[in-house]
Amino acid sequence: MFPAKLALSTLKRIHHGACYRCLSTCFIQKEGIQAGDGPPSDSRVWKRKPKNQSAVWSSIRLLETQQNGRRRFSLSAATIVDSAPVHVQPYLRLMRLDKPIGTWLLYLPCTWSIALAANPGCFPDLGMLTLFGTGALLMRGAGCTINDMWDKDFDKKVSRTASRPIASGEISRMQALVFLGGQLSLALGVLLCLNYYSIALGAASLSLVITYPLMKRFTYWPQFVLGLTFNWGALLGWSAIKGSCDWSVCLPLYFSGVMWTLVYDTIYAHQDKEDDIKVGVKSTALRFQEQTKPWLSGFVVAMMSGLVLAGVNAEQTLPYYAVLTGIAMHLTNQIYTLDINKPEDCWKKFVSNRNLGLLLFLGIVVGNLWKE
């Protein structure tokens, strides 16, 4: 393997310009280094892995942000992880801190519920939004840790996941278990800040968090179980504000969130369908295959119906329904233009759902302020 130190030394000697990017890119592609959870590439997995893969990645990422002896300032999640001490970076990558899209998708249903529960004419509780944001970060990290512990052997066989800390050997299963205990302890501290009803409701979701990663071994519908898990905040957010759930609002909202997850995670699963077949795991992408678009269209109709019903029962106003119209148009375009055989397009459509969720949150807030 071309040593990372030699690459760094060589690139420092190259005249400023685009050349250093080309060389670092060639180095990455030649050796088959994978970024983790981004869109898949055509690179192959190492047959002989480096002794310190984390150090190699740190050097390469430094090279790609360095020019003329200066580092460009960036606050991206990946940059923050790269700036951490080398021995800490594998744990941050284990909880996907460098890939925040999953945290957003877990957090957004919480924000919808908290905003719907706000008093008429008032903004949602900022303290509660912050508390749930912290909880989402911790629970997403715990979920990823559990997933990687279960899937260590599978991840080694898939190019996109072979560089994950447990699969690559940077972190042992025992170390991951200790780290998981720390994350769950902190998450419990967040949960204990809520009322008793919400504590019991939040604790009930732990079984889903633990068992979800196993579902792809037994059913073609693991995305449905992920939906049940990721949208639990649609129930918890309301109860945290009101003291209990109003099921006429919470259930339609929860149902809509599950349908939404089926849409975006089926799109995501199409990136890995070839690898999934090789390693023997299941997904809705493999279940639907060329009929994916009709299925996704049905999920969108169900999602929008649930959001309308939740809005009616929560006495939402015109801005909310105007935003729902925009969301329906966005999802329609997303499905119509989707190329399920193009991983880059699947990734682009998948990450666009963060903005969709933020738009719905904005619609709920403005709709609530519109109330008398």
Mean pLDDT: 83
Q: Beta-strand level of the residues, as a percent range?
A: under 5%
Work out the count of structural domains: 1
Helix content: 55-70%
Encode the helix/strand succession as letters.
HHHEEHHHHHHHHHHHHHHHHHH
Shape: globular
Integer-rounded radius of gyration: 22 Å
Number of helices: 21
The top level CATH class name: Mainly Alpha
Major sheet description: 2 strands, antiparallel
Strands of the biggest beta sheet: in what spatial order?
1-2
Key features?
Tetracycline Repressor, domain 2, 372 residues, 21 helices, two-stranded antiparallel sheet, single chain
What does it look like?
It comes from Maylandia zebra. InterPro entries: HB_polyprenyltransferase-like (IPR006370), Prenyltransferase (IPR039653), UbiA_prenyltransferase (IPR000537), UbiA_prenylTrfase_CS (IPR030470), UbiA_sf (IPR044878). Keywords: Isoprene biosynthesis, Membrane, Mitochondrion, Mitochondrion inner membrane, Transferase, Transmembrane, Transmembrane helix, Ubiquinone biosynthesis. Its cofactor is Mg(2+). It is a multi-pass membrane protein. The chain is mainly α and 372 residues long. It has one domain (77-370): UbiA prenyltransferase (Tetracycline Repressor, domain 2, Orthogonal Bundle). Helices cover 68% and strands 1% of the residues. It has 21 helices and two strands. It has helices at 4-13, 19-31, 53-63, 77-83, 89-94, 101-116, 126-150, 152-156, 165-168, 173-191, 196-203, 206-211, 222-230, 233-242, 247-269, 273-279, 284-288, 292-313, 318-336, 343-351, 353-370; strands at 66-67, 70-71. Strands 1-2 form a two-stranded antiparallel ribbon. Helix 6 (101-116) packs antiparallel against helix 7, helix 13 packs across helix 15 (247-269) and helix 14 (233-242) runs antiparallel to helix 15. The N and C termini lie far apart (67 Å). The model is unreliable at 5-36 and 40-71 (pLDDT under 50).
